[in-house]
Amino acid sequence: MSTQNELWLRSLETTTPQEGFELAIKLSRMGVKSTQPDIEVLKRLRPEYANDAGSLTAA
Questions:
Q1: Residue 22 Cα distances to 3, 8, 25, 38, 58, angstroms
Q2: In this predicted model, what pLDDT tens digit does every residue of 2-55 receive, in sequence order?
Q3: Is 0.70 topped by the overall pTM?
Q4: What are residue 49's phi and psi, to 5 degrees?
Q5: What is the pLDDT of residue 57?
Q6: Would you give the DSSP letter of residue 16?
Q7: Distance CA 26, CA 7 (A)
């Protein structure tokens, strides 16, 4: 698990479109992790917002 001070993103540059796509997924996951760092809370609350586009957009 990353800490806030850990450098995990060294560059946004990628050499292939596939690497760019994988980086986009990583950025998305890290955004979720930053929004809700407690995995147990994330799992518990997910059913409440998983099918609500407004809630997902707000996050």
A1: 21, 14, 5, 24, 24
A2: 555 678 899 999 999 999 999 999 999 998 888 889 999 988 988 888 888 888
A3: no
A4: -120, -10
A5: 80
A6: S
A7: 14
Tokens of 42: 């994330």
Assess contact for 8 and 2: CB atoms under 8 A.
yes
Please report the pLDDT score of residue 53 as a whole number.
86
Cα atoms found within 13 Å of the Cα of residue 53, Cβ hemisphere only: 0
Which class for 44: exposed (0-12), middle (13-18), buried (19 or more C-beta within 10 A)?
exposed
Report angle CA 8, 12, 34 to the nearest 5 degrees: 45
